Amino acid sequence: MPEAGSYGSLLDALRGVTWPARRTIRGPAAGTHRSRQRGISPEFTEYRPYRQGDDPRRLDWKLLARTDRAFLRITNDRATLGTTLMLDASASMAFPVATQAKWTQACRIAIGLAAVANSAGDPVGVMVAGDRGVSQLPPRTRRGVIGEMARLFETIAPAGRASLEEVLSLVRPTQRIVLVSDFLAEEDTLLRAARERITAGADVLAIHVVAREEIDPSRTSIIAQDPERPELKRSLVDETREGYREAFGAWRAELARGWRAAGAAYFEVPADEATDHAVRRIASPSGVASAQERGA
Asked: How confident is the model at residue 237 (pLDDT cuts 50, 70, 90)?
């Protein structure tokens, strides 16, 4: 599992990266995201004639002096956006067993995104769902939150099953919610829970971590075993390998369509992708897609 001191180069690579909200948000506190609140920020939007009861601080006094007409400068205020990162710590996230590449990548993505959000003054928290229940840190803005997350990840080893849909229901719907998982459990209930959060106002992102060995398994004969249901085993040989690859690719494409249809942003991240690159495309306003996400 990742050590708390192993993220330095990642954090250095992400300096200056921003992560704007995908939509305008509600929020009274000053921050970096476009808010639905109208206020007195320096970002000018439009003029409106002054009406009795309006805040005189919004008057454009220079325009009043020139034209003898009272107009308000309407602006978009900026708000903070609470971000909760939800990590799947079920047994399948420990694959491959020798490297635990999926879990390592999930932790690094969470640390990277948390650091980017924290640098903008956004409250950042984490919830990790595994066989021991939920380990969590509530959203905070203080500087030490990234180190606290790293130390929390050190104490967790993926095992058993995780009920992400139950954890998702605990998150405030006004927040940005980032799900980091391999989504190998029953996805229908999770999608339904995510759709409810989105309808209630949440900005949901689904980060699908996939091991290279899952995309392109070894050509040697192996026995594939479900880590969360050990009784399920299947041989993977030359005769079945191509069928597996086609089925796995079709499932990933269907998964992406389902999340996007629900209103979430979806990103597939190979476990061997450079984490800083993955974080940059997740945080990008344009949401740069991988070849798989473009349907290649």
From this structure: low
Whether residue 78 contacts residue 45, with contact meaning beta carbons closer than 8 Å, is answered with no
What's the pTM? 0.77
For residue 275, give the H/E element and its range.
helix 275-283
DSSP 65-134: HHHS--EEEEEEEEE---EEEEEE-SGGGG-STTT-HHHHHHHHHHHHHHHHHHHTT--EEEEEEETTEE
| CA angle (106, 229, 188) in 5-degree steps | 65
* pLDDT tens digits, 48-67: 788 877 777 778 888 888 88
291 within domain boundaries: no
The residue segments making up the domain with residue 50 are 33-79
Number of domains in the chain: 2
Per-residue HEC secondary structure of 159-196 comes to CCCCCHHHHHCCCCCCCEEEEEECCCCCHHHHHHHHHH
- 118 and 154 in a single domain? The answer is yes
